[in-house]
Specification:
- The complex is a heterodimer of chains A (about 450) and B (about 130).
- Chain A has eleven helices and eleven strands.
- Chain A is an alpha+beta fold.
- The N terminus of chain A is likely disordered.
- The radius of gyration of chain B is 14 Å and the shape is elongated.
- Chain B contains one helix and nine strands.
- Classes of the chains: A alpha+beta (about 450), B mainly beta (about 130).
Chain lengths: ~450, ~130
């Protein structure tokens, strides 16, 4: 299993932290631009729809006015009765008066239908008297009033003569004869006019929409920038406090370790030497000499345990004491547990302190795991040095485990160690299967 | 005038009157869109002319009354299938002592019967004329 992670940038964590506040601002700016574009497109679509509805509404009102104010006053009963012999003359009178007053503005054609679906009048006189029937919507308007607007279906027979106009909007409205017969008044408008009207309305709102969104974005970006800076400063402060807490803890641990080392450890060492010396001096009393020797062995054993505990409490001063000495102390508990330990450390002179520290931390975690969980008979710890790197190898013949399985409680430290190794850009390899022991290899640039 | 007559009956009756009048056809309508003219004498010395020609889906009807007397006031009517489409009063003008009126009527499906009526209230002269288009 090999995992690798890129080391921090050439300018270090400070530069990375300085750039960190930029990220949310850039992300917000990109998201803001996308949102503005989407809003502009959406607002454009909605305003176009609203403008089209407004334009069609205008056409509805226009049709109602034309029908009620222009066409209806000129209607006669004879005009709308196909069986009336006076129909032709009545249509002539209506045509002469209404034609020029109905075909105004955007109105391209008018038709007046009776309830049977017969066109009783149109400015296209060829349609007069023809029966095309009425659709449901048209009949509804004729019988109940209101208006109906739709895009003309130019494939219909009733609209054949309108094809030359292009796309049309047809609007229906109800009108009445003098005796109260309902008729359907229909006006055709060029849809280009509707589209133009829609575009005009839309164009009047577009600057407001776009400018509003842009101003909002321009106002909000500095706020996000300030907020991001504050968050960055807060994160830096948290990091500083954490570092200070860690350093304070390290100082305290170092003080305890130093006190133990300079006090208890030295005293125990003196006691063990004194016991051994007394044992040698008691040649006349072998029994007492044996008890004194046993006392000296016991003190040295406890001294070794105490030194291992000191290593646990505070890592050794690798620079002053050397990696070999530190690893020697590290394997002391393993030796005490009866494990055959083979330690081989090459000279690490000239290596980076961080690299040596990582070798130490890795060896500490792996050796500790081997002793606690592996129960090996043999343990081999080796540190080799090449021109470019330090290579730590820790190998045991213990119980082994499945690296792909979820870490047990005792192996959480290994996962944390792996993260540390990755952060320093080192290579980490762990090979293990249940029953065949474990082999760990870590290579870090020196 | 003929409130209970159908349009076809009105056309047939008017056509019969036309055939029996003194009017003369100056041109005929062959259905190809050309104009149709008819003229005749009024009850006095005046003459009438009636001309119908197609005009953008409608029929342009031109009526002329020539009495050779200027300043006469005539009431006139244009009939479509026997019923009055337009009416009015006009005065004959110099130098010819005539007046003319032009109006458009709807070109209905089938044959259209176009007629004129004119009356000089002062002299009692009346003019009548019809043509089928």
């Amino acid at each position: 299993m090999i995992a690798r992670r890129q080391p921090p940038g050439p300018n270090g964590p400070a530069a990375t932290r300085r750039r960190a506040w930029l990220r949310p601002v850039v992300q917000f700016s990109i998201a803001g631009v996308i949102a503005v574009v989407l809003l502009i497109v959406g607002a454009g679509w909605l305003s176009k729809k609203a403008a089209t509805d407004e334009a069609i509404s205008d056409a509805r009102r226009m049709t109602e006015i034309l029908g009620r104010s222009v066409a209806q006053p000129e209607l006669s009963e004879a005009m709308v009765d196909p069986g009336n012999p006076a129909q032709s003359a009545a249509i002539d009178r209506f045509d002469s008066i209404a034609r020029h007053r109905l075909l105004v503005g955007d109105v391209l054609r008018v038709k007046i239908w009776n309830s049977e679906g017969i066109i009783v009048y149109s400015d296209d006189t060829s349609l007069i008297g023809q029966n095309f029937g009425l659709g449901d919507e048209e009949r509804k308007v004729l019988e109940h009033g209101g208006t109906d607007a739709e895009v003309s279906d130019l494939s219909k027979a009733e609209n054949i003569d309108e094809r030359s106009f292009g796309r049309l909007l047809e609007v229906y409205s109800q009108i009445w004869t003098p005796k109260g017969q309902p008729l359907l008044f229909e006006a055709y408008y060029s849809y280009d006019v509707v589209s133009q009207r829609s575009s005009d309305i839309q164009a009047s709102f577009r600057p407001i929409t776009v400018a509003g969104l842009l101003i909002f974005t321009l106002l909000i970006v500095p706020l996000v920038w300030i907020l991001a800076r504050r968050l960055d400063r807060a994160a830096a402060e948290r990091e500083r406090l954490l570092t200070a807490a860690v350093e304070a803890s390290a100082v305290e641990r170092r003080r305890i370790a130093r006190d133990l080392h300079d006090g208890v450890v030295q005293d125990l060492a003196g006691l063990s030497f004194a016991a051994s010396a007394a044992s040698r001096d008691l040649k006349d009393d072998p029994e007492l000499a044996a008890r004194m020797e046993s006392l000296g062995v016991g003190v040295r054993s406890n001294l070794r345990a105490l030194r291992s505990l000191l290593v646990e409490i505070y890592p050794p001063e690798l620079r002053t004491e050397g990696l070999a000495a530190a690893l020697d102390d590290l394997i002391a508990p393993a030796i005490a547990a009866g494990i055959d330990v083979d330690l081989n450390v090459e000279d690490t002179e000239g290596s980076d302190d961080d690299a040596i520290g990582l070798v130490w931390r890795t060896a500490q975690e792996v050796v500790r795991n081997a002793v606690r969980h592996g129960q090996p008979e043999h343990l081999r710890v080796a540190v080799a040095m090449t021109d470019a790197s330090l290579i730590l190898t820790v190998e045991d013949d213990g119980r082994g485990f499945d690296p792909s399985a979820a870490p047990r409680d005792g192996h959480l430290g290994l996962r944390a160690l792996r993260d540390l190794i990755h952060e320093m850009g080192a290579d980490f390899t762990l090979e293990s299967t249940p029953g065949t022991g474990t082999k760990v290899r870590m290579e870090v640039a020196r | 005038m003929f409130p209970l007559l159908s349009r076809a009956a009105a056309v047939a009756m008017a056509a019969a009157i036309t055939i029996g009048s003194a009017g003369l056809a100056a041109a005929d309508h062959g259905g190809g869109g050309s104009d149709v003219r008819r003229e005749g004498s009024c009850s006095g010395s005046a003459h009438w002319k009636l001309k119908v020609k197609p005009d953008d889906g409608r029929l342009a009807v031109e009526v002329e009354i020539d009495s050779n007397r200027r300043g006469q006031v005539w009431s006139w009517r244009i009939l479509h299938d026997g019923f009055t489409s337009y009416r009015g009063n006009r005065t004959t003008r110099a130098p010819s002592g005539s007046f003319s009126v032009e109006r458009r009527v709807v070109d209905m499906s089938g044959s259209d019967l176009i007629g004129l009526r004119a009356k000089n209230s002062a002299t009692g002269q009346t003019c009548r004329g019809h043509l089928a288009y």
